[in-house]
Amino acid sequence: MALDRSNPVPNDLSAFWMPFTANRQFKKAPRMLVSADRMHYRTADGREVLDGTAGLWCCNAGHNRPKIVEAIRQQAGELDYAPAFQMGHPKAFELANRLRDMAPAPMEHVFFTNSGSESVETALKIAIAYQRAIGQASRTRLIGRERGYHGVNFGGISVGGIVNNRKFFGSLLTGVDHLPHTHLPGQNAFSRGQPEHGGNLADELERIVALHGPETIAAVIVEPVAGSTGVLIPPKGYLQRLRELTRKHGILLIFDEVITGFGRLGAPFAADYFDVMPDMIVCAKGLTNGVIPMGAVLATKEIHDAFMGGPEHVIELFHGYTYSGNPIASAAGIATLETYKEEGLFERAAEIAPYWEDALHSLKGLPHVIDIRNLGLIGGVELEPIAGEPTKRAFTAFLEAYDRNVLIRTTGDIIAMSPPLIIEKGHIDTLIGTLADVLRKLH
């Protein structure tokens, strides 16, 4: 139906089957965002809503950034689309070069996708194909982690460990196992930054290796900081030990940095922040500031070069997407990386992170708050569930906060926040102060 310009809300909401949404509840009382600028959304009823989630963990530079908007406009008028199979266009190569220059030193090659989910699928396929290319064809198993989130495609939900994302979709991929998650509230509740306890949980990989045999395992994939499951921070020493064990057994280590990439921890990537170098980095979201779908897999020279044997005219990797390295997405990516650099947003995030931490932990002691977790510009506030009604308490907080012009996100009974890196102290005060008021009145 046509849109009534005097009312930006369509008069029929039934056709759009919304993702990860309580569709019936939403369509009875829709929450419509119609524009955005820097730290705020504007709603259909004219309210300014403070963005406490960078959209969906993706608008790291804030909204409506001039350089990104202009890059998209210019590129659309110059070259709207170009095939990436046996053809190329300059901006895809330029963006790949800039990503290589930004990424940790071992990462020298970039494979473009359209999303975090597709980047995960790509990395898993590359891992198995790499092992075959180096003569280790028996290495086909993939190891994920309980409570891990790696997108919603079949590979991602197979190595992922969030129950509701898995249980409706059959038997998933075979040959997958899972490390235990690292959430230890009894020992680590209200930790500031990395928890003290749980680094030894990485040693569970030794048990899995003994069970299946190292010669069967291709790769381990983990989020350095788990986001969508409710902000789980890695215990001290955990990632370092995981790297040590994967290297010991000839297993590739993949970091899913769809959330942690591009400044979320005050560094280009979590690999930089923790000084732990995986074999591949999966990224998306902040790559284009969330403006246009794009993802990427960053790989070492060793992995890339393993595919570069045989006749030069033969395709080395039978994988890719229609929109890999799309021209407009590439232009948006270049402009996004320039915005980060010119405004020093990664450094800015690191500078304001202590203020963010203090503000978050000021919520300790409020009704129903049973844990607070933080690292960089990420925060999680865990609430005690209502008996027999899981998720309801946090979702009620989400609705109340939105009514008070603040956007937060919930997963289960956990409130997750990840504001744009341009956030100022006054914004933090408003965000956390509003949330405190909501929590005081929450039943």
UniProtKB/TrEMBL annotation:
One of its GO terms (biological process) is biotin biosynthetic process. The keyword Transferase applies. One of its GO terms (molecular function) is pyridoxal phosphate binding. Its cofactor is pyridoxal 5'-phosphate. The keyword Transferase applies. Keywords: Aminotransferase, Pyridoxal phosphate, Transferase. Belongs to the class-III pyridoxal-phosphate-dependent aminotransferase family. This is Aspartate aminotransferase family protein. It comes from Roseicyclus persicicus.
